[in-house]
Design a protein that fits this description.
The protein is of the alpha+beta class. The strands form nine sheets. A four-stranded antiparallel β-sheet has the order 3-32-31-30, with no helix packed on it. The protein contains five helices and 32 strands.
Length: 610
């Protein structure tokens, strides 16, 4: 007979208190507490129930292991929290160090500039000193020459004086030993007159004559220099005229040849245009490729009127290590940027498929991309809740923006290029000043993750789509909510605005594409050609729209007529389909389409050269 006690007991495995008779299992560890008699922690059943003793021993050991595991998990959680805090401080220090490095580089550049100015000033002073030294040396040489002339004249005068002295010497000869005073006075007067006559010209007169000769020489040299300069100038004019004559002759010959070439090219263009209607697809493909190379307006008009998308084929295949989440093309259609679950962004040359640079820095998947209107920068949004700004042509990281508390799923540059808008899993839309790297505004209103955003070309309207199945149209300048569009029945994965800013295209998991009037918010068309969710929609400058879907197809549409032009079917491989198409983008001229897949591949579509 079982004994029932209403007193409090403790579970023999985990020690949890319970009331006997009210519970059959321990609420903490699940041990059967209806044993007779009840066991206390540390006790074992009687010897006549060895199976129960083994079970209890095993249960206590397992519970001890569970407790150790829970303790270890808590310690790991504490350590992870501590590491995250340290990483946050490290990122802050790195950002601060980056800004300090930029400031230091600016100071170094300024010092180098000032040093160059000082060097140039020193060079000018040295040149002036050398010039002055040369002028002084020339003056010294001239003075020495003048002194040599004066000394030569003095020596000549002294020679004449010596001869006169010899002629007067007989006055004191032995034949005339004594001279009367009166005669002596007369002789001295005559001697003075002779000496005065024989004295050399004054130094001033010599200097004037020398200066006059020097001025004459300088004038002669100046006249010779002027004549030389005139001769050189005339020679240059003559050579220039000869070159112009040659250029005119060459231009006349080139025009003569060009006239014949233009006539021939015009005939060829007419033939190629007529070949576009040939029954053979191969002939049409060749004719279209050759017309693209012509510069004649007639050829360009024929290309615009012709729909070549049925000739699209995969031109290049490039690859990430993991799923490709986002792709973007620059405004000139020369570069492709891709983001992946491998946490990298890659820059590719679209015509060759060559990898230019791999951007490393995100600690989460690269989910969103946007390229600036001038094609110099691009932004990447990540599962690490950050936005990074990079240089497009070099892949250099400029700076990192932090402010979202969830994944950054969507990005768009303002047409002026000085502002970036981002949407995230935190249900918010953030506005960033790229000059100051500051968060300048936040929009609320979505009740779930913001999946896509777009700004009209005028820069005054912001469109956002989210997992709440809604599209919101706002005045970007004031933040006023203008329209909320609720016709979609699935997440709005992608939004795009036409080049004139009047038409909004949206793609949704409800398998539809919808076209709206941006100003009124009115639904214009519902396009239901896809059989699965629409993952991406993009619009070219010539109003061609491309959409990609989980059904594996790419559809090209005439946006103005809201009709499909061509469908690129899924590519089959030896292993089946390529996988889900996660993203796509059409080139600015509509001549290229890029798609990204969950297997890591990126495909570049177009007609290519023949």
């Amino acid at each position: 007979m079982n004994r029932v006690s209403l007193g409090a007991s403790k579970c023999p495995v985990c020690g949890t208190e319970y009331v006997q008779g009210e519970q059959t299992l321990c609420p903490t560890c699940g041990w059967d507490v209806t044993l007779d008699p009840p066991l206390m922690p540390g006790e074992l059943p009687e010897v006549n129930s060895p199976g129960e003793g083994t079970k209890l021993f095993w249960a206590r050991n397992v519970w001890a292991l569970v407790q150790e595991r829970d303790s270890a998990v808590k310690q790991l959680e504490w350590k992870l929290a501590d590491i995250e805090g340290q990483l946050s401080k490290v990122w802050e220090r790195l950002d601060r160090a980056g800004k300090e490095r930029i400031n230091a580089q600016e100071q170094v550049d300024r010092l180098l500039f000032e040093s160059e100015e000082v060097r140039q000033q020193r060079a000018r002073l040295e040149m002036e000193i050398n010039q002055e030294r040369q002028e002084r040396l020339a003056r010294d040489q001239e003075l020495e020459s003048r002194l040599d002339e004066v000394f030569s004249q003095l020596q000549q005068s002294n020679g004449d004086r010596s001869q006169n002295s010899q002629s007067l010497h007989p006055i004191q000869s032995s034949s005339h030993p004594m001279i009367e005073p009166q005669d002596l006075k007369e002789l001295l007067a005559n001697l003075h007159q002779e000496i005065a006559r024989l004295q050399p010209p004054k130094e001033a007169e010599s200097f004037l004559k020398i200066q006059e000769l020097k001025d004459q020489l300088t004038e002669s040299q100046s006249q010779q220099l002027n004549l030389t300069n005139k001769l050189i100038s005339e020679q240059k004019k003559s050579a220039s005229l000869q070159e112009k004559v040659k250029e005119l002759n060459a231009e006349i010959e080139a025009k003569s040849r060009a006239n014949g070439a233009v006539e021939f090219e015009a005939e060829m263009v007419n033939l190629l245009i007529s070949s576009l209607a040939d029954p053979s697809e191969a002939v049409q493909r060749w004719a279209y490729a050759l017309l693209k190379r012509s510069h004649l307006p007639k050829a360009k008009m024929a290309i615009e009127d012709y729909q070549p998308y049925r000739f699209f084929r995969c031109l290049q295949v490039v690859e990430h290590q993991k799923a490709v989440r986002t792709v973007a093309l620059d405004p000139n259609g020369n570069f492709l940027v891709s983001g992946s679950n491998d946490k990298t962004v890659k820059i590719w040359e679209i015509n060759t498929g060559n990898l230019i640079k791999t951007g490393i820095g995100h600690t989460g998947s690269a989910i969103a991309l946007a390229i600036s209107p001038n094609g110099e920068l691009f932004a990447s949004g990540s599962g690490d809740n950050t936005i990074k700004l990079w240089e497009l042509k070099t892949g250099k990281l400029r700076f990192t923006l932090r402010g979202h508390t969830g994944w950054v799923n969507a990005l768009a540059f303002h047409p002026k290029g000085n502002m970036l808008v981002s949407g995230g899993a935190d249900k918010t839309i953030a506005l960033w000043n790229l000059d100051t790297q500051e968060l300048i505004g936040t929009f609320y209103g979505h009740t779930s993750t913001v999946r896509s955003i777009s700004i009209n070309p005028q820069g005054n309207t912001l469109i956002s789509g989210g997992n709440d199945n809604m599209i919101k149209i706002r005045n970007l300048l004031t933040g006023e909510l203008l329209h909320t569009l609720t016709e979609h029945t699935g997440s709005v994965c992608s939004v795009a605005i036409s080049p004139d800013g009047n038409i909004l295209a949206s793609g949704s998991n409800d398998t539809t594409l919808r076209l709206w009037n941006v100003g009124t918010g009115k639904l214009l068309y519902t396009l239901a050609d896809h059989s699965s969710g629409v993952t991406s929609v993009s619009i070219s400058q010539n109003n061609m729209m491309a959409s990609s879907s989980d059904d594996g197809t790419i559809k090209i549409w005439d946006l103005e007529q809201a009709r499909p032009i061509h469908t690129i079917p899924p590519l089959k491989t030896t292993h089946g389909n390529e996988g889900y198409m996660l993203c796509s983008a059409i080139g600015p001229n509509g001549d290229k389409i890029v798609t990204g897949f969950d297997g890591g591949k990126i495909k570049i579509w177009g007609i290519g050269d023949h």
